[in-house]
Amino acid sequence: MAKASDLFVAALEAEGVEYIFGIPGEENLDLLESLRTSSIKLLLTRHEQAAGFMAATCGRLTGRAGVCLSTLGPGATNLVTAAAYAQLGAMPMLMITGQKPIKTSKQGHFQIIDVVDTMRPLTKYTRQIVSAGSIPARVREAFRRAQMERPGAVHLELPQDIAGDPTDAHLLPASYSRRPVAESKAIAHAARTIADARHPLLMIGAGANRQTTANCLRAFIDKLGIPFFTTQMGKGVLDEDSPLWLGNAALSDHDFVHRAIDSADCIVNIGHDVIEKPPFFMREGRRKVIHVNYEGAEVDAVYFPQIEVVGDIANAVWQLGEALQPQAHWDFDFFHRVREALATNIAKRADDDSFPLSGPRLVADVRRAMGDDDIVCLDNGLYKIWFARNYRCRRPNTLLLDNALATMGAGLPSAIAARIVHPDRNVLAVCGDGGFMMNSQELETAVRLGIDLTVLLLNDNAFGMIKWKQRHEDYPDFGMDLGNPDFVKYAESYGARGHRPASASEFLPLLREAIARPGIDLIEVPIDYSDDDRILNEEIPAMSAALVDA
Ligand SMILES: Cc1ncc(C[n+]2csc(CCOP(=O)(O)OP(=O)(O)O)c2C)c(N)n1
User: Fold this and answer.
1) What angle do CA 420, 425, 429 make, to 5 degrees?
2) Which helix (H) or strand (E) is 532 found in, with range?
3) Of 412, 399, 404, 415, which Cα lies nearest the Cα of 367?
4) By alpha-carbon position, which residue is closest to atom 4 of ligand 1?
5) pLDDT by residue (tens digit) across 525-538?
6) For the CA of 409, the nearest atom of ligand 1
């Protein structure tokens, strides 16, 4: 007979779990003891929310469920935002929570909330383990659900008394399974529609960044020469230095890329996830939208594709590539003019030496400092628009941003997780002063774990993104300004290094040194968003309109 918690941990090992992020409570003590002697590393964090963000990011980068742990009640409710983050962002993640004994308990209702039901709208699967014998099936099913398309969050509650029970149950082997592929008539119909179009365009979405679709997509565009743009979470699937890259749909409308979208008569949406902010507005009429994804399109007022190709994305792209030849009547001239205009526009502000730093200069310098495989992890703030728009990714999943829950507070935890998954790559967290302070305590986690990391802290002493929207909507300035600690001293108090450049030209050398140095460096960069509204809402729309009129 084995102890239930030992069997539980053996089941996690069999699923390939290498580490668990979290904070235990007394209800997890059996599980903790079983972990102590296992191959799995327990990585303590300073807040369960951060543990969840880390686990979700591990899932996002590996395709295998990242695992986090908390106690019952307050620990479990602290996981709620991370559950939503994983669920909306399609990141495979397992949350394990403890619970008071369920057979007899001397503690009444102390600390008890219904965690299983709390997690129901935020997960694909949430179960209490009611007997030791059910552990193998529950754990296997949790991983299967978390990892299958569309991936997301799952939750298992292991009550204290069940964890200590004896059991003779055996683990269940994983099944061999392949994703279904798109049916040949759907492929033929889509291929005919693309071939018949005059200005076809590809859109690469979040789903294409999950599985290995990059090789098939590269072969597809190399053969056919069809230009592409991306959603925020589709960035990096294809090299954005490609002459076929037309930009990112980071803004809602009127950027250069939207002029290309407006003139396309067929858009092939590869891996579009409706959870992302709509990358373009649908139009009734002649323009055809083809949905290529693991699942059918969820139709709503902002998304109603006419053709659906449902099945494994890489296979669908390969089949489409086989079925198509470049067509003499395809006309991409306007798209190429859009690309040149965007490139000129991005280059124009890349050396802006105003200080506090501007968003475009910041992004240009980060790109100069980071290698092709290095990873930038964004928190959530106004700078996200500049990164999505101006940062050209060269490899899949090298700009981790959240255009799904779009939560603040995930920048630093996701960067810690990215470095754990990829210790051979440089990792940079980019946070606003607002978002950073939501999980800044994880600097201690990073220092304790000996993680090499650079943190860019963009300081405008405000909730800049909302301040921008407030100003744009002509409200008076109210409720947005913050006081802040001395971030250099704050970093130093954790045992990290703190820096603050005094001019635009000091920033890049400082960043390069920080990236090259082991340990943790925090660079506080004063940032100026005061011109962003004019640039994003007046200058760019006017310039892109001129392109159409030309
Ligand atoms: C957890 C959470 N709370 C509130 C918001 C709403 N929100 C979005 S961006 C933002 C301001 C972010 O400020 P900061 O991190 O300083 O970045 P900045 O925009 O100033 O660069 C707020 C409050 C959110 N997305 N997530």
Assistant:
1) 70
2) helix 532-534
3) 399
4) 408
5) 999 999 999 999 99
6) 1
In sequence order, the β-bridge partners of residue 475 are: none
Question: With contact defined as beta carbons under 8 Å apart, do 359 and 532 qualify?
Answer: yes
> Is the minimum distance from the CB of 432 to ligand 1 under 6 angstroms?
yes
Confidence at residue 226, expressed as pLDDT on a 0 to 100 scale: 98
Q: What is the layout of strands, in order, in the sheet containing 375-378?
A: 399-400, 375-378, 427-432, 453-459, 520-526, 497-499
**364 Cβ partners below 8 Å, 6+ apart?**
346, 349, 350, 351, 390
State the amino acid at position 274 in one-letter form. Answer: V
Which of 358, 465, 533 to mutate for ligand 1's pocket (most ligand atoms within 8 Å of CB)? 465
Cβ neighbours of residue 352 closer than 8 Å, sequence gap 6 or more: 358, 360, 361, 504
Query: What is the distance, to the nearest Å, from the Cα of residue 546 to the centroid of all Cα atoms in its chain?
Result: 34
Q: Which residues on neighbouring strands pair with residue 155, listed in sequence order?
A: 95, 126
Q: What's the CA-to-centroid distance between 483 and ligand 1, angstroms? A: 15
Please indicate whether residue 136, judged by its CB atom, sits closer than 6 Å to ligand 1: no
> Of 395, 399, 425, nearest to 214 (Cα)?
395
pLDDT for res 56: 98
Tell me: the pLDDT tens digits for 271-327? 999 889 888 887 777 789 999 999 999 888 888 999 999 999 999 999 999 999 999
Helix, strand, coil percent content, the chain, rounded in steps of 5: 45, 20, 40
Chain position carrying tokens 């006017």: 542
Query: What residues contact residue 383 under an 8 Å CB cut-off, 6+ apart?
Result: 359, 362, 363, 430, 432, 458, 527
E strand map for 71-149: 93-99, 125-128
Q: State which of 81, 362, 401, 408 you would mutate to test the pocket of ligand 1, scoring each by most atoms of that ligand within 8 A of its C-beta.
A: 408
CB atoms within 10 A of CB 545: 12
Mutating to test ligand 1, I would choose from 387, 401, 463 the residue with most ligand atoms within 8 A of its C-beta, which is 463
Distance 433 CA to ligand 1 centre (A): 9
**What is the rounded CA–CA span in Å between residue 312 and residue 33?**
41
The parts of the chain modelled with pLDDT lower than 70 are none
pTM exceeding the 0.85 threshold for the entire prediction: yes
How distant, in Å, are the alpha carbons of 175, 237, 303 from that of 424?
32, 20, 40
252/278 Cα distance (integer angstroms): 8
